[in-house]
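hiii so um. not sure if this is the right channel but i have a protein structure encoded as tokens and i wanna go backwards to a sequence. like what aa goes where. can anyone help
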């Protein structure tokens, strides 16, 4: 009886260790964590639909994602985003102007 209990506990310990090792290996190989491609942001628009910003090398790709297709919307140089130039700076400036207009209307 005791031998059977020890054997069962040993087998359970081996299975738990195998699961832990598989989880550790998966985290090390998880896509988008590091390397050439990295997911910067994702915004879902419903089930299996959304828009993603993916950094590939020195470029940021804005991609539309559906369950059947990927569509490239825009390619932005990563340096322009880091320096505050390009589309991100344009949007920021427009938001600043809209807020100022709203404040002027409220006053």
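sure thing!! here u go:
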């Amino acid at each position: 009886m005791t031998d059977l209990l020890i054997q069962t506990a040993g087998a359970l310990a081996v299975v738990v260790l195998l699961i832990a090792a598989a989880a550790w290996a998966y985290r090390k190989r998880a896509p988008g964590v590091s390397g050439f491609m990295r997911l910067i942001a994702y915004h879902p628009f419903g089930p299996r639909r959304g828009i993603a910003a993916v950094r590939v090398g020195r470029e940021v790709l804005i991609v539309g994602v559906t369950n059947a297709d990927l569509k490239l919307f825009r390619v932005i140089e990563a340096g322009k985003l880091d320096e505050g130039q390009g589309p991100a700076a344009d949007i920021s400036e427009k938001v600043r102007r809209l807020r100022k207009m709203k404040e002027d209307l409220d006053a």
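oh and Helices lie at 2-29, 78-83, 86-106.
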